[in-house]
Amino acid sequence: MVAVYGRRRVGKTYLVERVFKNRFSFCHAGLSPVEHIRKGFLNAQLKHFHNSLKSFGLKSNECPSSWLDAFYLLQQLLEQKDKGERQVVFIDELPWLDTPRSGFITAFEGFWNNWGAHRDNLMVIVCGSASSWMLDKLINNHGGLYGRVTYEIRLSPFTLRESADFMKEFGIKLSSYDIAQSYMILGGVPYYLQYFKKGLSLAQNIDELFYNRNAKLGSEYDRLFTSVFSNPGLSENIVRFLSTKNAGYTREEIINKLRITDGGAITSTLNALIAGDFVVKYVPFGMNKRQQHYKLIDPFCLFYLRFVKDRRGLNENFWEQNIKSQPITVWRGIAFENLCFNHIKQIKNALGISGVASRQSAWSKREDDMEGTQIDMLIDRDDNVMNMCEMKFYGDDYTVNRDYYKKIMHRQEILSDMISRKTAIHSTLITTFGLSNNEYSSVFTDAITLEDLFKD
């Protein structure tokens, strides 16, 4: 049994179909809850499953009335078709089949434990965008499916390097600077990138995807929640709240702001957002585990909430006409920080510390002057070094002036008072093209560029 899971639109189905090239003994995809009302949804799923069985050769015309009957029919079909060669069964969007009180998991468990697991030539591939369901109900199941998954594949969005390779494959010619911006908007999700058109600039492509009358991704945000989460309303409310602060919020702050009960619903929803690569949970430097923060990291959601949702009726050339505006300039700086958090592996490689255990987090401190101190990223390493990282998305080599030099030195002083005396602080600049050499540039021990972030 192989379980494939990951964010919606990341290419799970495409991967399986490309590997097996439709050499399936049986293939089925669950009906999306987006297109169907809940009433009668079980019967619709069973009828759809029965139709798939018939299309693969089942002779029975009687539609199953339960999942136990449905999987027994699948067993009969596979036995009829068995000629000793490998049989591959592919069930896509498995979580959609598990409607309330349907008994689906019990039936699937019976099918596998009583029959499937004993077939030497059988491979069952199950796939799902609801990552928390795949983890809780299947991969980490403590009941009858405990330890039954042979292999699991967690498919993640593309990195910057993979995004660049993908665009090159399809003849999309963009600079590294613009590919990085595309990542800051679309998050390296291949389904979104496939809509890019050759010959158009990044800004023209973004207008096509979000602001034109028939924008390809105009309704994608709403579909994300209804198709992936069991509690789409609460999930969307949490995401929208988290989008208002780059550092994120504590569980208590989320509960108080949304005026919801502290219980199982909030726990399962937060876990689902984490499992789906929408949110990360981390402890800001200097805080304890009770002050864990939940931070929204999905670039698509962050961009959509800031520039698309509730802004319908904008000019169809909105992005192209506003790319130099102050709001978009500010957004680039914040979005670049998230890009860096999503490429911590590349940052550590560039620093030569890939083998060193470390933890990364953001950090802020309110001071008496009320201006406060904020550090974009701290990499707390086990080799007695702490990298104090500053991120600058800039159109040229970055130049450190006197005021910024003093600000960095001030942050180092504050940080040094909070850490062990045996720990050295290395100020690290992560920027687009590089660091301009002048009398103040020595404040940075290391400089990491887009070229480093584009590496494997």
Radius of gyration: 25 Å
Structural class: alpha/beta
Determine the CATH superfamily of the largest domain. Answer: P-loop containing nucleotide triphosphate hydrolases
Q: Report the end-to-end length measured between terminal Cα atoms.
A: 30 Å
CATH architecture of the largest domain: 3-Layer(aba) Sandwich
Count of strand segments: 13
For this structure, what is the CATH class of the largest domain? Alpha Beta
Summarize the amount of helix as a percent range: 40-55%
CATH topology of the largest domain: Rossmann fold
List the domain count as a whole number.
4
Mean pLDDT: 93
Per DSSP, the total helix count is: 20
For the largest sheet, list the strands in their spatial order: 2-3-4-1-5
Provide the low-confidence segments as ranges: none
| Biggest sheet descriptor | 5 strands, parallel
Shape assignment = globular
Estimate the strand proportion: 15-25%
Which features characterize this protein?
single chain, 456 residues, alpha/beta, Rossmann fold, Arc Repressor Mutant, subunit A, 5-stranded parallel β-sheet, 5-stranded mixed β-sheet
Structural write-up:
The protein is α/β, with parallel strands linked by helices and 456 residues long. 43% of the residues lie in helices and 16% in strands. It contains 20 helices and 13 strands. A five-stranded parallel beta sheet has the order 2-3-4-1-5, with helices on both faces. It has a five-stranded mixed beta sheet with strand order 9-10-11-12-13, with helices on both faces. A three-stranded antiparallel beta sheet has the order 6-8-7. A hairpin with a 7-residue loop joins β9 and β10 (373-381). It is globular and about 80 Å long. The two termini are 30 Å apart.
